[in-house]
């Protein structure tokens, strides 16, 4: 039996972040070509958020007396990476409740349940996929994109299984994929085949930027959407890393990026809103977006980032 209880906050954590080369790899020509081919005149849509909204993880983010954490969170951010659905597929009623606590323009990005990705390993999961999709479509206009995160022991030898899963996934339901085994990235033919599959199934290629797993960091988009999961190191380098991301987004915007989904994690999650606020401020300045800067006018104190 595999042990799957781990957290994104600890994924890729290192003892000395200052020793890591955080330079982003260059954008491959294939990404620029794809963006240019699909370029539209509409403005870039940008969604930035955290992974959780509960008070236990985001201590100091909520003003005293906050009665509903999600409602307040949705006033500060325009999206949430919904990791809660990884552990249990939500009911329709739960999804409707979450939706009603947010306003127009807010988006949820639910993670595919582990019963499908980790325990089921994409085999005999049709009924579970149907239950998940039937529930989460009740987000209606608040549904951003679901993402399928595979365990790091899921290898290219099971490519055909992944291919069948993506080809049979409900059409029209937005989906992104995150693979974690090194061999998906280090073997050129394997990566090329994966990218080809994602393009043909209109599946976005999740980008993971975390200190201890630079092998996973790629810049190959497979749709006109960029889905970035950024894991900070609770270290001063986090600022420079985000500045480089701002420059990269400027490059992609010019080429024709349609939508950006950028989710900020931290090893110590309490600092996530503060780091996300810094990123939003820099992004607003660089590309002209007008995203709310979280807690900008609040008297609540989150303390310092480091």
TrEMBL record:
- Pfam families documented for this protein: DUF72
- InterPro entries the record matches: DUF72, UPF0759_sf
What SUPFAM superfamilies does the database record attribute to this sequence?
TM1631-like (SSF117396)
Superkingdom assignment: Bacteria
Name this polypeptide is given: DUF72 domain-containing protein
């Amino acid at each position: 039996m595999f042990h799957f209880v781990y957290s994104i906050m600890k994924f890729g954590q290192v003892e000395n972040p200052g020793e890591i080369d955080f330079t982003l790899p260059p954008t491959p020509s294939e990404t620029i070509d794809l963006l240019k081919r699909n370029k539209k005149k509409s403005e870039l849509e940008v969604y930035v958020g955290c992974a959780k909204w509960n008070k236990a993880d985001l201590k100091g983010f909520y003003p005293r007396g906050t009665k509903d954490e999600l409602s307040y969170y949705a006033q500060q951010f325009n999206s949430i990476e919904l990791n809660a659905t990884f552990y249990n597929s939500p009911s329709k009623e739960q999804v409707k409740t979450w939706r009603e606590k947010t306003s127009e323009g807010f988006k949820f990005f639910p993670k595919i349940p582990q019963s499908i990705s980790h325990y089921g390993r994409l085999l005999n999961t049709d009924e579970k996929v149907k239950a998940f999709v039937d529930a989460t479509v009740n987000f209606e206009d608040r549904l951003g994109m679901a993402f399928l995160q595979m365990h790091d022991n899921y290898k290219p030898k099971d490519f055909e299984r992944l291919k069948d899963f993506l080809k049979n996934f409900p059409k029209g339901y937005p989906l992104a994929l995150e693979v974690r085994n090194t061999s998906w990235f280090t073997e050129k033919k394997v990566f090329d085949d994966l990218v080809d599959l994602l393009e043909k199934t209109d599946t976005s290629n999740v980008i993971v930027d975390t200190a201890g797993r630079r092998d996973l960091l790629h810049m190959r988009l497979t749709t006109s959407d960029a889905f970035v999961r950024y894991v900070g190191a609770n270290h001063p380098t986090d600022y420079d890393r985000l500045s480089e991301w701002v420059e990269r987004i400027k490059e992609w915007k010019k080429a024709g990026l349609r939508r950006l989904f950028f989710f900020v994690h931290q090893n110590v999650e309490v600092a996530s809103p503060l780091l996300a606020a810094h990123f939003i401020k820099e992004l607003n300045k660089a590309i002209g977006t007008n995203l709310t800067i979280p807690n900008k006018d609040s008297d609540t104190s989150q303390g310092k980032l480091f």
